[in-house]
Amino acid sequence: MNTLRLLPLLFLPAAIVTHAATPSLTIYNQNFAVVRDTVPLDLKKGLNDVTFDGATIHVEPDSVMLRLPDGSPLRVREQNYRNDPVTQQLLLSLNEGKEIDFIVHEQEKPDRIVKGKVIRSGYMPHSGFAMQRYGQNYAISQMAMAGNFAGDGVAGQPIIEVDGKLQFSLPGQPLFPSLGDDTILKPRLDWKIEAAKPLKADASLGYITGGMSWEASYNIVAPEKGDTLDIVGWVTMDNQSGREFKDARIQLMAGDVNKIQPQELGVVAMGCARSMMASDAAAPAVTEKAFDEYHLYTLENLTTLKDRETKQIEFVRAGGVKSEVIYLYDGAAIDWNRWRGVPPSSLLTAEEFGAEGNSKIAVVREFKNSKESGLGIPLPKGKLRFYRSNGDQLEFTGENEIDHTPADETVRVVTGNAFDLVGERKRTSFAINQSEHWVAETFEIALRNHKKEPAVIRVVEHLYRGVNWAISANSDPFVTKNSQLVEFRIQLKPDEEKKLYYKAVYTW
Fold first, then answer.
1. Paired strand residues for 208
2. Rounded to the nearest 5 degrees, what angle is found at the Cα of 353, between the Cα atoms of 351 and 357?
3. What is the rounded distance in angstroms from the CA atom of residue 497 to the CA atom of residue 420?
4. What is the pLDDT of residues 292-346, one digit of tens each?
5. pLDDT in tens, 215-271
6. Residue among 209, 182, 292 nearest 36 (CA)
7. 3-class DSSP state for residue 440?
8. 3-state SS of 149-164?
9. How far apart are the C-alpha atoms of 207 and 193, rounded to whole Å?
């Protein structure tokens, strides 16, 4: 039995100076989100100044949409986005060149006032997003202006003059004069809106923001004996947007949505930019539906997502999922760095190509994402962690990642290498006839089973040299998996060794 769920998403706008309505957001697994909020408007005829102070610090300003409840756009003459809320470093920068008071606290002594002149504040004048937009050279120059090469991501060292001497630290706690009219306490959107007549309505605000992401992870438990699986899936949401979303409607979008990413900064600039199974009868916390070319998962309950918070919610639970353990021997060990840039015609005839081998036999866990297997829901990409029961405790047996997997597709992941299964691959002959345009080579593969139970090993061989090939001799039957891959299935009894061989002939 299984269930899959996530929470709803809503686009609700902001307000004139505050925002009160239920926000809604859709988080994408590509480090961005779409935020919706409500903005209460009380417009007079003519030009109106409207302010919204509930934006995130990673707003893409050109993505902002402000619309009336009926969907019609407002006549916005001008929009401004401010992201320099009041901090100590900002106030220091506003007082550069001026003398201010500092309170000095010393143990067992009364507090005293020291006057100091702010030579340099250390304030970083532009956000990491702005510096990403304009590139690495711009970021480095901004950091130099702030005196920040330590990579703390906030500000550099201030320089204060006290009694005619310079020091690279604050002499005490600064006391600032009152705030100027141009300072803000939170990231802010300002609009100049023209109204043909008086209007009172809750406008809809929507925008794209960075600093938010989500990912799926799956804990998978197998019994001590047997291969049926219990699966619990979690979604992990990470909010680094600079804003708390209280009692928000949240949706998660799974899929590869095309999104132009900001230019990556260099190493220097990067410093600146900066109970396993419960009752199956429980109501699912997340629901899923297809949306456009993607899948949308909706959290069923309103959720508070604090700034700099990581939150996890269970979204899928399935028991008794039918699975299979596969032993896979891919014996070729080719160092592709050695052959990078070599033309295909040279690979076709190079005697040393493809002769290397390895002894590891991979353990592959496979199950069908179908209703018959106990699933049958679109699974977002994420990490799978496998456990097996060992009496009264669970032991970790491996992990891997899956890509987005639609319903009725097979999940197949490598969880490690088998300890008691060994493979050995070697080439036993090589011949080439340039005048008749053919190459032939023979491989011998030895398989050993040191387990106390039988094992079936799938041996895959890659016909790397070219697509015009034929296997002219073989000890065991094989199936062709694609144009350059064949598979042998070899059954081994406990403590048994078997050898297989095949001869491949390439022509051109």
1. 34
2. 115
3. 12
4. 456 788 888 899 999 999 999 998 899 999 999 999 999 999 988 889 889 988 9
5. 999 999 999 988 899 999 999 999 999 899 999 999 998 866 666 655 443 433 333
6. 209
7. strand
8. CCCCCCECCCEEEECC
9. 18
Say what the pLDDT of residue 259 is.
66
Return the structure tokens found at 411. 């999940």
Q: Which residues pair with 75 in a beta bridge?
A: 194
Q: Which two tokens stand for residue 237?
A: 């949401």
Report how far apart, in Å, the C-alpha atoms of 405 and of each of 3, 5, 32, 193 are. Answer: 16, 16, 22, 46
User: How open is the CA angle 476-480-484, to the nearest 5 degrees?
Assistant: 115
Q: pTM of the prediction?
A: 0.68
Asked if residue 385 lies in contact with residue 399, where contact means CB atoms within 8 angstroms, the answer is yes
Q: Please, which residues have CB within 8 angstroms of residue 6's CB and are 6 or more apart in sequence?
A: 235, 250, 251, 252, 285, 286, 287, 288, 296, 297, 298, 299, 300, 313, 315
For residue 169, what are the domain limits?
88-175
The predicted pLDDT at position 149 comes to 45
36: amino acid identity, one letter: R
Position 144 in a domain: yes
Instruction: Report the distance separating Cα 468 and Cα 471, nearest Å.
Output: 11
Query: Which CATH number belongs to the domain containing residue 489 in this structure?
Result: 2.60.40
Domain-embedded: residue 34: no
Domain final residue pick, 144, 175, 206 = 175
Measured over the CA atoms of residue 52, residue 57, residue 60 and residue 61, the dihedral's sign is positive
In a domain, 103, yes or no: yes
- Kindly report the average pLDDT of the chain as a whole number: 83
Looking at the domain assignment, is residue 266 inside a domain?
Answer: no
Out of 175, 206, 238, pick the residue that ends a domain. 175
Number of domains present in the structure of the chain? 2
Which of 54, 76, 57 lies closest to 65 in space, CA to CA? 76
For the chain, what's the residue count? 508
Q: CA neighbours within 13 Å on the CB side: how many for 267?
A: 0
- The label of the residue with tokens 């697994």 reads 29
